[in-house]
Design goal:
Elements lengths: L1 H28 L4 H6 L5 H11 L5 H13 L13 H36 L4 H15 L2 H15 L14 H35 L2 H8 L4 H38 L5 H10 L3 H29 L7
Helix pairs in contact: 1-12, 5-6, 5-8, 5-10, 5-12, 6-8, 7-8, 7-10, 8-10, 10-11, 10-12, 11-12
């Protein structure tokens, strides 16, 4: 296990360089000049040249790329073109908002998704199963931004039950949860549907396996069979889809935070792309990539815990 862990950790720097390289190339390919975006269309040639020198954009691309790699290797992600603040400060000042949104969505989708999948597997090909799978198909099919707008229209505009945008101005945890409910529900509903579908499939297969029939024949209670024997053996595909969901969830947070005008990494990424803020975009993309790498590493290590037959070399 230790050898496998060290091998995976050794691959991270290579992946980081790949993320930085791809992001750097894409940002330079997209149409538009960050200096013009910063100064406006009425900027003079002299002011544009001055700002290009200030941002370091007058250098050849290969030198800009090497400077970017050198800075990031030292923990310096540069300064935002728009605000002039360090990229690290820009990101970490609003990162707690995204962490709260992601954590609430993950807990909601995981708990209720697994419960719905178990219920569906126990009532296979019955009305309950069809109902759960129908809702799951609906959740998978609906775009997050469209579902979020529907929730805003109904619960915020029509019923006035939740704030339309932003985060809670009060510091109490109850007010924070109240403001977090709609965006986390909109983001988590898609992943709840995915977790429910994979849980149903995995649980249905395990519940019809020979060892479950043996345990049931010995007189074990149905609850013990489901939660101690069947669920643990069905967890590997469930953990896999949850790990993948976290990566997709970070992408979904971009749309969710934009629709709900909620300050966070997603909304900051959209704003920085629109303003051609190269250092900030690179910092956010790298952060998302690192989170995705470490989550997948944790998921891979959990496999050995859930199934002792799995050995890493």
């Amino acid at each position: 296990m230790l050898k496998y862990l060290l091998q995976r950790l050794a691959q991270i720097p290579i992946t980081v360089v790949g993320i930085i390289t791809v992001t750097f190339i894409i940002l330079r390919i997209i149409p538009g000049d960050p200096v013009v975006a910063y100064l406006g269309d009425m900027a003079t040639a002299e002011s544009i040249a001055t700002m290009r020198e200030k941002f370091g954009l007058q250098e050849p691309l290969y030198l800009q790329y090497l400077d970017t790699l050198k800075g990031i290797s030292k923990g310096n992600f540069g300064q935002s073109f728009v605000t002039g603040r360090s990229v690290t400060n820009e990101i970490f000042s609003i990162l707690p908002n995204t962490i709260a949104l992601a954590a609430a969505s993950i807990v909601f989708s995981t708990v209720f998704g697994i419960m719905a999948g178990i219920i569906s597997a126990l009532r296979l090909n019955r009305v309950t199963d069809y109902l759960v799978m129908g809702v799951s198909i609906l959740g998978v099919s609906m775009p997050i931004f469209w579902f979020g707008l529907l929730l805003l229209l109904l619960f915020s505009y029509k019923l006035n039950l939740f704030p339309i945008a932003g985060v809670a101005t009060k510091t109490s945890w109850l007010a924070q949860l109240h403001a977090l409910f709609l965006p986390s529900f909109a983001l988590g509903f898609l992943f709840l549907a995915l977790v429910a579908r994979i849980t149903r499939s995995s649980m249905a297969e395990v519940l019809h396996s020979d060892f479950v029939r043996t345990v049931r024949a010995k007189g074990a209670s149905e609850g013990l069979i489901i939660y101690k024997h069947a669920l643990r053996n069905a967890m590997i595909p469930i953990v896999t889809v949850i790990g993948l969901n976290i990566g997709v969830l970070l992408a979904g947070a971009v749309l969710t935070e934009t629709v709900f005008a909620r300050p966070g990494i997603g909304k900051l990424l959209v704003d920085s792309v629109l303003s051609k803020d190269y250092p900030l975009v690179q910092g956010i993309i790298l952060l998302i990539g690192l989170i995705y790498l470490f989550v997948n590493l944790i998921v891979d290590l959990l496999y050995a815990y859930l199934d002792p037959r799995i050995k890493y070399r």
